[in-house]
Design a protein that fits this description.
The chain has 258 residues and is an alpha+beta fold. The protein is built from ten helices and eleven strands. 39% of the residues lie in helices and 13% in strands.
Length: 258
Amino acid sequence: MTTPSQEKKFPKGMVPLEKKPFKFSCHSEVSCFTKCCRNVDMPLYPYDIIIMKQKLEMRSDDFLSKHVNVVRGANPFFPTLMMKMNQVNACPFLGPSGCAIYDSRPSACRMYPLERAVDRSPDKGRPDEFFFLTNHDYCMGHKEEQEWTVKDWLRDQGLALHNSHADRWAEMDTFFSTNPWDGEGVAGPRQQAAFLACYNMDGFRDYIETKNIFATFKIPATRLRSIQNNDEALLSFGYDWVKMIIGGMPTLKMRKKK
């Protein structure tokens, strides 16, 4: 019987780890400690913004303004967010002892030295995950003796929730890649609304209250309370709202007009 990784073709040199163990450890005694926090392109995703701005006790719009660059990435129809490096081209949260927001660090930091790929073939049910070991020449962590399996690493780095959010974001990114903006151009009003709902939870919450958005939809009381008090729940609502108002998808139930 062939396994999913045997059936799936990967780029040359990329072999899924599956259950094979790997060696890695990062700590202050490793000679390259914090080198990976410098001269780096660090993509940020919606859940990353939430956990970092909460850690820093900032509004999300202030966090975006201070710490994020909005750039054109792989998706030509929706912007990509990148961490804004400081004046010496290092992560702004790099301190003398390492990461100052370590417990709220972004997904890309947590995942290293692994890379994750997901097969979302439409004829399948649950997507297949594949994990690959990366190895930058400067990283001495690969020479350490601590051994991991993928399952152990994901658990240790708290990646289950991050990966779940990454999968939901991938659905949105795929939706945006269909160019659902009706030719409104770059940063048009519909794109700005989508950006608000995906990245700026505090601004989106203000918008909802100002426009009385909740009155438009039939939302179960338990979900409504969660949305009103929890950024993750608000993000999930934001995705549904964007899909409905821009894509016409039945992701929310409208209230009947009186």
